[in-house]
Automatic annotation (TrEMBL):
Name of this chain's protein: NADH dehydrogenase (Ubiquinone) 24 kDa subunit
Pfam family, one: 2Fe-2S_thioredx
Residues binding [2Fe-2S] cluster: C90, C95, C131, C135
Species this protein is from: Lachnoclostridium phytofermentans (strain ATCC 700394 / DSM 18823 / ISDg)
Cofactor(s) it depends on: [2Fe-2S] cluster
Entry keyword annotation includes Iron: yes
């Protein structure tokens, strides 16, 4: 299992923190407020690093361990930042049979990051996904909203160059 340590230093701004505090103040009296607060915090920051969890913990007077438990339980939350360009490789059956596993492994090698991580410059993040419904184009990857299909490992340099 990866250590869930970010390769990108936390770069939250005072404006983001003020926005988060405002959201917490608005929602804190609602029953079950933690989930919507975490969702808004992730919208504000793009992910939920320990620094953001600590702000929420201190402001709501909820133990940090409880907040961390919720964040790590639900797959919608991320402890790691996403890159400017989010690369997602389909590892569903059709794509996998046609070589998406090799594409995924080659991207980890080329970018120097593991699954779920972000490059140190904040440019690329990499994740695997299950079927995206483009089985006829297998193997498929997406970069943000751009879809690339019928790929081979040899196509990766050209795709990455478009976003460099």
């Amino acid at each position: 299992m990866s250590s869930q340590k970010s390769t990108v230093p936390f770069a939250g701004t005072k404006e983001q923190e003020a926005e988060l505090i405002s959201v917490i103040e608005e929602l804190k009296s609602d029953k079950g407020a933690l989930m919507p607060i975490l969702q808004k915090a992730q919208e504000i920051y793009g992910y939920l690093p320990i620094e953001v969890q600590t702000i929420i913990s201190n402001t709501l007077d909820i133990p940090l361990e409880k907040i961390y438990g919720v964040v790590t339980f639900y797959s919608q939350f991320s402890l790691l930042p996403k890159g400017k360009f989010k690369i997602s490789v389909c590892l569903g059956t059709a794509c996998y049979v046609k070589g998406s596993g090799d594409i995924y492994n080659k991207l980890m090698e080329k970018l120097g990051i593991a699954s779920g991580e972000c490059t140190p410059d904040g440019k690329f993040s990499l994740e695997a996904c299950r079927c995206i419904g483009a089985c006829g184009l297998a193997p498929v990857l997406t970069v943000n909203d751009d879809v690339y299909g019928r790929l081979s490992v040899d196509d990766l340099d050209g795709i990455l160059a478009k976003y460099a």
